[in-house]
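Bench notes, afternoon.
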Amino acid sequence: MGQAPRRLGGSRVTPPDVIDVKDVRDVSHRGRARLKSILGPRLTVLARCVTRGLPLTRWGNLRRVEPFSRSFGFDRGTPVDRYYLEKFLDANRALISGRVLEVQVPSYTRRFGEGVIESHTVDINPRFQTTYTCDLADGSPIPSDHYDCFLAPNTLQHLLDLRVALRTMLRVVRPGGTLLASAAMLLPLIPEGGDYWRVTPDGWRSILEAEWPRCEITVQGHGNCLSAAAAMYGLAHEELKAAELDAYDPRYPVLITIRGRKPMATT
């Protein structure tokens, strides 16, 4: 049965029409759209952050389209990625021993090696006067199964024939030997070119499992949004705190480190 009209002070009162929720939503949406058009995009975001309790951005001198350094932070101190590379090599000192082959110059062999009996180098550029002057995609001058450790710091992103070069690296290491490498991820490209790859940790695992079969492989990303931003700006790692550098967020890998152990020969 329908609701009978009520009388109030002698007047007949008709019940109100049922309110359509869709109409309310449409009115609310039009109101928000009008408010956004009045505020503009920047003030709209500011208002949203304030009303939702989100942290506000204070850009300071970070609001810039030029980095603080165009040389990765070398002119200010030590580049951010070197912090992660050096911690990785320090943690693997015991593996940098015996016969060691390093890309370009033997600086990390000298700094982190322990019990090194032979230190050799390889690079495609003859100006470095390396033991072997060749492309790792060829690598024919390098003997097979010879080195206890192959060091390739910040090298892999510069190898055009990456998969072939990875096979060469594995070939020249003796059974049971170690390959230690790093690859850039959230870092500026080198200005002179020859910077071909930015591969995620999962991508590296997939590539290495194919090119280094039966090897024990460990791939680890390093970094977070702060250290990634600092690296992109060309800041030095000394400008951040150790706790800020050590915090790890897998969404923002600055550097990726790789350790591979060649399987022992089967009899």
